Amino acid sequence: ETRVWGCSCSPQRGALQLPWPGAVPAGGQVRGHAAGGAPAKPRSYWQYLRRHVLPPPRPPYQRVCQAGDPVLRLAAAAVEPARVASPEVQSLVRALVRVMRRLPCLGLSAPQLGVPLRVFVAEFPERLHLAHSPSLREARQMAPFPLKVFVNPAMRVLDSRLVSFPEGCESVAGFAACVPRYQAVQVSGLNEAGEAVSWQASGWAARILQHEMDHLQGILYIDKMESRTFVNTRWMELNE
Q: Is the per-residue pLDDT at 231 higher than 60?
């Protein structure tokens, strides 16, 4: 996701049938703490009881997966063109749009909802565009655009000049950093109806497209950021 600041259970419990290849069950962990962080916070009694009464949620989730979730580091699989019209893919697209608009954010990829497929949505409505000052909109080349849905997208660089501006991501919630991105790109793929679509974008729209394309390769903006610009977006509030 780009910010401007920028499984069904079988009758035998524990045998998970994941509806998407490579999906990770809710609460799934990579054992061994390979990243060197602190161990996961233990579940409360009520969380433990709930998990033994209700099945775990299945992707696409209604919340965004956070950095550390293995699904965010997978290279997403292509969707068979014949499956674009399937109930599963249509439900995925609806979930992406619903969560994107609820947050709100400007783009969201399928891996961020726990589904490792090459699908993303993007939208920059007028109300979010006007929430920024005219000077900032001009400096960052922001322009509103309607909902875009891409299935199996491929990207071509149209202008290789690198421009660095702050970005955030709902999968790295509460943080932001400057990220260099190409000035203009073209993304081609299928829309939610299975029709071929292509979009040439520059400025902020191009940044959004590159951010979402990275998600489909298991890449987060923190992999490309200018590390000394990395900030907690609430640092001033926390110092008060």
A: yes
- Residue recorded with tokens 């299935």: 151
Look up tokens 């497929």; give the residue. Answer: 117
Burial of 224 (0-12, 13-18, 19+ CB in 10 A): middle
Amino acid at 219: I
CATH class of domain segment(s) 70-233: alpha beta
What does the domain layout of the chain look like in residue ranges? Answer: 70-233
| Residue of 42, 75, 72, 44 whose CA lies nearest to 59 | 72
Stated length of the chain? 240
List the structure tokens of 152. Answer: 């199996």
Mapping DSSP to helix (H, G, I), strand (E, B) and coil, where does residue 51 land? Answer: helix
Predicted TM-score of the model (pTM): 0.81
- 17 has pLDDT over 80: no
- Reading the block at residue 62, the tokens are 């209604």
pLDDT for residue 34 is more than 60: no
pLDDT in tens, 103-154: 999 999 999 999 999 999 999 999 999 999 999 999 999 999 999 999 999 9
DSSP, res 174: T
Residue 108: closest CA among 229, 223, 211: 211
Catalytic residues: 212
Enumerate the β-bridge partners of residue 180.
Answer: 164
Query: Could you say which DSSP state residue 86 is in?
Result: S
**88-96, long-range: CB < 8 A, 24+ apart:** 88/19, 89/117, 89/119, 89/151, 89/192, 90/192, 91/60, 92/60, 92/117, 92/119, 93/119, 93/121, 93/149, 93/192, 95/60, 95/61, 95/62, 96/60, 96/120, 96/121
